[in-house]
Amino acid sequence: MLVENPEKQALEIIKRLSVVYPDAKTALNFTTPFEMLVATILSAQSTDKMINKITPALFEKYPDPKAFAEASLAELEQDIKSSGFFHNKAANIIGAARGVVSRFGGVVPSGMADMLTLPGVGRKTANVVLHNAFGLVEGIAVDTHVKRLTERLGLTSNTDPVKIEQDLMALLPRTYWGDFSYYLIDHGRAVCDAKKPHCPECVLKDICPSAFLFIQAE
């Protein structure tokens, strides 16, 4: 259910959530751009808390892109098994590592177009790495929290993450693109739960077109 003025809605959401979550940022632990890339690939269909348990030993065993590029697929699968979907993730990590080594001199590229040539890297992953590892903003990362909340809050009627990103980029000044995702992610974790959102205690309840429906259903 789209609101009448989604641009005004988006700015009001930022205004309120930036007060509630002033330190909103990625929860993934990393020290280099490549570690950020690997952690982000691993985080798909998993939790950041789980990935942060895996990565210390993983990054010690594979300290750089070259080490990942030369890793045994079967062995890496076992190393990351607890992250879920480990077959695809291991293949993507090794593929991305080989691309970084062979085409970018062992250095993670800092541009969207180059990032998207790496296996396992879509716009969400690229946006996360560019923003957190390089301080660059070329788009808005749309994960499951962002997808869910932007629909509930009436900012988009699309369900495809790329189209949602395009809608959000059209609504928000570029200066907000990087942080917007993390406001929604923190709010999604704390209040706007996927199955049972806590609407009565939500700071956005008076402007959220979905809140009345959820409250009535209780």
Automatic annotation (TrEMBL):
Q: How is the cofactor bound?
A: Binds 1 [4Fe-4S] cluster.
Task: Tell me where in this chain the HhH-GPD domain is found.
Answer: 42-190
Q: Which UniProt keywords apply?
A: 4Fe-4S, DNA damage, DNA repair, DNA-binding, Endonuclease, Glycosidase, Hydrolase, Iron, Iron-sulfur, Lyase, Metal-binding, Nuclease
Q: Name one GO biological process term.
A: base-excision repair, AP site formation
The record ties this protein, via InterPro entries, to:
DNA_glycosylase (IPR011257), Endonuclease-III-like_CS2 (IPR004036), Endonuclease3_FeS-loop_motif (IPR003651), HhH-GPD_domain (IPR003265), HhH_base_excis_C (IPR023170), HhH_motif (IPR000445), Nth (IPR005759)
EC number of the protein: 4.2.99.18
State the CDD domains in the record: ENDO3c
According to its UniProt entry, the function of this protein is described as: DNA repair enzyme that has both DNA N-glycosylase activity and AP-lyase activity. The DNA N-glycosylase activity releases various damaged pyrimidines from DNA by cleaving the N-glycosidic bond, leaving an AP (apurinic/apyrimidinic) site. The AP-lyase activity cleaves the phosphodiester bond 3' to the AP site by a beta-elimination, leaving a 3'-terminal unsaturated sugar and a product with a terminal 5'-phosphate.
* UniProt similarity note: Belongs to the Nth/MutY family.
Q: HAMAP family per the record?
A: Nth
| Protein name (Swiss-Prot/TrEMBL) | Endonuclease III
